[in-house]
Amino acid sequence: MRLLHRDRGRCGEHRELEQLPQRIVELEAEQARIGARLGDPALYRDEPQQIAPLQTRLQEIDDALLDLLERWEALERR
Question: Going from the N-terminus, what domains does the chain have, and what CATH number goes with each?
């Protein structure tokens, strides 16, 4: 019974490992879009209220990417 539980856990980890690259790609794409918006002078002129939320989201993405990369490394070591 114990072995079956461990195998199910590994299946979940394997699935998680397979999904990590796509999640990273999605976050990197969002990061690029936000970076482009923050690099556009029109944002500062026309929508300055959007700057802080975009900067916050950019930091959240950076943190999430770091977490995902650390998790990927941990899963691959198993």
Answer: 2-77 (1.10.287.380)
What do you get for the CA distance between the two ends of the chain, in Å? 21
Residues 24-58 pLDDT 10s: 999 999 999 999 999 999 999 999 999 999 999 99
DSSP letter for 50, please. Answer: G
Could you give the CA distance from residue 32 to residue 38 in angstroms, rounded to a whole number?
10
> What is the distance of C-alpha 71 from the center of its chain?
11
Residues whose CB is less than 8 angstroms from the CB of residue 61 and which lie 6 or more positions away in sequence, other chains included:
27, 30, 31, 34
Entry pTM:
0.81
Burial class (CB in 10 A: 0-12, 13-18, 19+), 22: exposed
Could you tell me if 28 and 64 are in contact, meaning their C-beta atoms sit under 8 angstroms apart?
no
